[in-house]
Amino acid sequence: xxxxxLRILVLFISLLYPIVNAQIKKIGVPFIxxxxxxxxxxxxxxxxxxxxxxxxxxxxxxxxxxxxDGVRWGIVAQPENRSMVRSLAIDKNDKMYVGAQGEVGYTVxxxxxxxxxxxxxxxxxxxxxxxxxxxHTVIRNNEVVFFSNEELFIYKNNKINVIRSEAKFDDFxxxxxxxxxxxxxxxxxxxxxxxxxxxxxxxxFIGMKIRKIFETKDGLILLTQKQGLFVCKNNQLKPFVTxxxxxxxxxxxxxxxxxxxxxxxxxxxxxxxxxxxxxxxxIQHINKQAGLQNxxxxxxxxxxxxxxxxxxxxxxxxxxxxxPLSKIxxxxxxxxxxxxxxxxxxxxxxxxxxxxxxxxxxxxxNGQHHNVNFQHISGMSENVWNIGVxxxxxxxxxxxxxxxxxxxxxxxxxxxxxxxxxxxxxxxxDLLLVGGYNGLxxxxxxxxxxxxxxxxxxxxxxSRVIVTDKDENIWIxxxxxxxxxxxxxxxxxxxxxxxxYNDKNGFPSSLFLNNFKINNQILFGTTKGIYKQDAHSxxxxxxxxxxxxxGQESHIRLLKEDHQNNIWYISGxxxxxxxxxxxxxxxxxxxxxRKLRYLYxxxxxxxxxxxxxxxxxxxxxGLIHYNSTKNKKYESKYKAxxxxxxxxxxxxxxxxxxxxxxxxxxxxxxxxxxxxxLSYSNNALHFSFASLCYDQPDATKYEYWLEGFEPxxxxxxxxxxxxxxxxxxxxxxxxxxxxxIYDVVxxxxxxxxxxxxxxxxxxxxxxxxxxxxxxxxxxxIKYQKNVAERDREQLILNQEKELLRNRAELNEQxxxxxxxxxxxxxxxxxxxxxxxNAKVASxxxxxxxxxxxxxxxxxxxxxxxxxxxFNTNFGLLKKINRIIDHELQGDQHWKEFEEIFNQxxxxxxxxxxxxxxxxxxxxxxxxxxxxxxxxxxxxxPLLGISVRGVEDTRYRIRKKLQLSxxxxxxxxxxxx
Length: 976
Prior knowledge:
By secondary structure, this protein is of the alpha+beta class. The protein contains 13 helices and 65 strands. It has a five-stranded antiparallel beta sheet, with no helix packed on it. A four-stranded antiparallel beta sheet has the order 2-29-28-27. The radius of gyration is 58 Å and the shape is elongated. The N and C termini lie far apart (about 115 Å). Residues about 1-20 have low confidence and may be disordered.
């Protein structure tokens, strides 16, 4: 148990270390990261902030609770009444309590990333529900205190105790777990046992408008809105005089925070942020001119890395207050690219694209940032590449030549075609060698003034980088050609000896070569480390001592020795310091300078050091100051987080997200982890991630690994998103971790999920496949059996065919005899048919004859006339009678005709009568004659009517047969 406690203590101390050791620089302005409403896409006003146990930042925004993970911003929760959030507090379980406008409650994060808000207003009595903004929310022991100007709410054990004000509260303060409230009528009160009691002399505080109270060893420090600072000790109140009183009293204090080391960060309404130390000395004044977005500070908090977060009336700023790096700037300085810097006679000079500027260094480093401005040196307005002190003179090397700076102006010493830099010739302190665009120039010091002498003959190359050795050799580096080594004649007007070195002489390349003078030794910077000249072979070889520290894979862009014998270097994109130890070895330090990556002007990297330990870096973003006495912990632990997980198909189907109201918040399982099981159609996923390190988050690199799909981690890269498509069914774990600019690797974040197989690869599908396979095997076996059975049957059949063939041969003769019999029978049948046909024809003729008889009778009747005598008429009648008697057998003839006709025509008469029962006997007879293909003239005497009558009868029959006018009745009868 004791060991465990010791471990916890060590961990606690390690977490506090960066804060304890963080000190605030007075020189320069800290690095500031600004976030405006366009960046975080919410309201411009922010009132409070906090950091949870993971390191996530939350802000009380007008639109709700806003989250920042270092990469993405987003509203994650809103109060139940959708009012603006004014205050936040968080407990050890990351349960976040919220004070809003007329609303109090809390929110917790669910497994799917969503924040579920629960209102506590229901616990208030109806009479206490009409309140305004909840300006402060604090957690003390096991209770939560919500403060509004009307009421104080104490939430404990799911109950709320209400403390009302008679004359309205003014403000609320938490001081070392003690709660103080300023009351407009009673002064300063203290919360004890759920009641507000007056402190001694509480009436003295009425009307002071206290905005913050800090507890120090010297007593309580009170920050008032308009009266400055006070200290209260032993119940005695007196003013706390500071160097910033004029700023604090005129610009209305709004808030404050106690920083490590006894510093006070004070926010104002009109002049931004003010930092003072425990003695009241002004350390920093950071306002809109110095880099803040707005001068109205609403709140101040520090994070676990020691950064100071400033919420503003418009936007959010993060001030790296504990960094040893700061920017040297003022409101009037519009210059950014710094080619060189120099302190001379307590003035700081900078060389820029537009000439040289200076400021009062003593005043600036003592904190007078707003009263000290960079001033332009008249006489130069072109690119100034270098400035340096030679003898008692400050010289500038510019596009038009060499200038001497005196006061606020510069005079031209040497008109050249451009001057890069100058070096004093070894053993000749009165001779200055100037490297120009096209050769070398000589200046001589005469009566403490430098006078131009002449251009040196025999060398016409650009001479931007020059060093000299103790033997009066001059080394010149040309970035695209190589290294020149020369000696001048005794009159220093002509090159006496010139040697040239490039990749043929041992250098890894002829490009990007530099030369430096370290500890009186000439060294060369190459793309593969540091080289030197071998004394015997004269070849260029790697320097073994530097290889140990800087390797042989980086481009050495700069080496510079300071007054403490430390060696400053720029290797690749890394800046570092090699500090020499007593034994001669070095320790290498790079982490404090990681922020300088990619800031230098390529080819014009410059570092300036002073005897006091000040270091200046000239960059594209201005002049940066470093002081090694300001320490910062760079190995702070932090976490990577997965911000969002979604399925790409269907479109943007979210699985995990903290964005407000994009997923369900109905689940109550706030502590369970999320491990979704996805269908195969959702096998394309998109992951968004970030790191909870806020120091240059854009430079943070990430590596990721999808366990179950990829064999190893990816390479480090700047991407904050990763997409996977067409994932096969499996159980997966997505891992991600970050590496910040200080090469500290974060704790990894993971997300587990499972993709189910498609329906055709499920267990049930495989069971079905097994069943189908069994059926197939059974079918094959059955088929084989059937084939064998068919073969056996075929064999039997072939044998039977053979027997049948034999039988057929025996029966052929019998068949031949039968065929002969059949032919005979056919002949007899045809003879019978012909006879019957003849009989039908005979009957037809008889019918024709009968009709002719009837016609003759009709003629006889027509001869009967009244005019004839009786005998004549009587004779005619007798004649008719005889004819009729003779032909009475006509109906018998028709019956015989019909019987024979039906036999010959497949019962035509019966079928026709059945199909068309409305046909009369005469109609049937006409149809029979048509069947026999008789024409109208032939039919008329058979029916005993005229041709016209036959036509009429045909028409009636057509209608009864329901034939159209186009149909042929004869064809119909023939085909019936």
